[in-house]
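Sequence, please.
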């Protein structure tokens, strides 16, 4: 059974930094895409950043977070991180991590989400 659990969220002042973590268990597939998404009140969930491994090796950032957010993983590939720097009020949202298995049958797994609030 695959489980993803986010941590590290909370309140941060504008211009401040925060690091989100996504700890996984049970996900053993090497060919994967790991990503962070967010959903602000009244808005649709959006892709923030992603990290592809094996068949598609790439790193993607939404234009709104380029230069401020950094996605990374640990060597075991079990934990995914999102470093948020120079936080802005518009970054306020519930943040979700997602692991996508690219090999057949393709399947995706989501964390439960964690709140990030940027406010003074």
């Amino acid at each position: 059974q695959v489980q993803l659990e986010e941590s590290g969220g909370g309140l941060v002042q504008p211009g401040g930094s925060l690091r989100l973590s996504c700890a996984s268990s049970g996900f053993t597939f090497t060919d994967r895409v790991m990503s962070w998404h967010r959903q602000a009140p009244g808005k649709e969930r959006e892709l923030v950043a992603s990290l592809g491994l094996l068949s598609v090796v790439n790193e993607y950032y939404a234009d709104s977070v380029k230069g401020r957010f950094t996605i990374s993983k640990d060597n075991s590939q079990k934990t995914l991180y999102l470093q948020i720097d120079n936080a802005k009020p518009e970054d306020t949202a519930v943040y979700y991590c997602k692991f996508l298995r690219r090999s057949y049958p393709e399947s995706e797994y989501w964390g439960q989400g964690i709140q990030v609030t940027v406010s003074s």
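The chain is about 0% helix and 55% strand.
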